[in-house]
Amino acid sequence: MSKAAADPLPPPPGGVLWSLAGDIRALLMLPAALTMQVAHPAVGAGVDEHSVFRTDPWGRGERSLRSLQLWIYGGEEAAAEGRRLRELHRTIQGTDAHGRRYHALSPAYYSWVHATGFPVYRHAARYLVRPLTEAEERQLYAEWLQIGRILGLRDRDMPQTVEEFWPYYRKILADELEATVVVRELVAVDQPVPPPDRGPLPLRLVLRMLWPVLLPPLARFRRFMTIGLMPPDAREAIGMEWSDEQERRLRSFARVVRAVVPVLPERLRYLPLAREARRREREAERLRRSDRRAR
Fold first, then answer.
1. Domain that holds residue 195
2. Domain-located, residue 292
3. pTM to 2 decimal places
4. Per-residue pLDDT reduced to its tens digit, 252-272
5. Closest by Cα among 29, 44, 75 to 261
6. Is 163 a member of any domain?
7. Element of type H or E holding 35
8. How far is Cα 104 from Cα 166, in angstroms, rounded to an integer?
9. 137 CB contacts (<8 Å, ≥6 apart)?
10. How far apart are CA 56 and CA 43, in angstroms?
11. Domain count, the chain
12. Tell me: the pLDDT tens digits for 222-242?
């Protein structure tokens, strides 16, 4: 069997991830998962010591988002992206804040980084999209396991059913998570962040001039959404405070999002790789219908 034939493929079109991950609402969900990842001391230490998130936050975010989109919408490119990520992380190692050695590809740490996506998508969908049915939750988990295979995780590295996942998840929350240095930076409202160095020059110049005014409300919004869309048990494990008033504000904001996003044109509703994948799938379905009629 050739290497290409053995490569795991993304979940098929029409699944739960296909709908969730390419929608612009996913941009609001991802910071919560990232914060849960770096709340693990080993993962936080790796990001603290080896990531460029402080010096190039916009580029780092853009590359991470493209990578995630390739896992789901990249077709045969997905496995190549998984191999690239493993190679990128192969040399990331060191000592965490508790004096414990870590390596980015250690199954316990690598699997936790991946695992956070499932509870965050599940929880955030309740606010921004709609609650998933039990069958959809199971499908989402099965699809997330398939993404894990693309990333090089073995089946023994992750719980293989939803029922097995929750005890694993709660144990990590109870035994490992804490407000690491990187967590505190990600939710800080006074952390200096340079304006995005992307887009046409006039836009970059305007952003640079307005950045001192724009940054404080953007930072407050980022913190609000990061903590609000984090599952409450994870929020509690990390020590993030969340009030009843904040919950009411989140629910009000989510109602607006649920009303507005579904009526947006496709070019505004979906991220570029997802939009292109949806176009290809429509064309493939049109050809399949034509072929059936021809028979």
1. 3-283
2. no
3. 0.92
4. 999 999 999 999 999 999 999
5. 29
6. yes
7. helix 26-38
8. 23
9. 122, 162
10. 19
11. 1
12. 999 999 999 999 999 999 999
